[in-house]
Amino acid sequence: QVKLVDSGGNLVQPGGSLRISCAASGFTTDSYAVGWFRQVPGKEREGVSCTNNWDAVTYYADSVKGRFTISRDKSKNIVYLQMKNLEPEDTAVYYCAARRRGVLFRTCQLQPSMYDYWGQGTQVTVSS
User: Maximum Cα–Cα distance for the chain, whole Å?
Assistant: First the structure.
């Protein structure tokens, strides 16, 4: 059974840093891509970053480039999102998602509809 568990969300001051985690179980993660998404009430879920576990290619939304870093601990089956220089606009529920590599999914994308498995979300609040 595929399962993703998000954790690490917290209240952070503007300019601060936070690392959130996505722990995967129930599948061989080497053949999967993992993405991080975020959502605020009343808005659509948006892609933040993603990585291909098979070749470590990464993508970032323009709004987080240079501030966020996605990484993976293969031994623990955990994908992290390190966030620096956080801004109030980064406040959202953050979700990780996964999809298996395939003919129709050759590299990770920042489109939520492309993913099959989702974590439960973790709240990140940036406020003074």
Answer: 46
Q: Print pLDDT tens along the chain (128 aa).
A: 889 999 999 999 999 999 999 999 987 678 899 999 999 999 999 999 999 988 989 999 999 999 999 999 988 999 999 999 999 999 999 999 999 988 888 999 999 999 999 999 999 999 99
Distance of CA 55 to the CA centre of its chain: 17
Sign of CA dihedral 23, 27, 31, 36: negative
Residue pair 92/37 in contact by the 8 Å Cβ criterion: no
Q: In what order do the strands lie in the sheet with 3-7?
A: 3-7, 18-25, 78-83, 68-73
What one-letter code names the amino acid at 115? Y
- Rounded CA-CA distance 33/115 in Å is 9
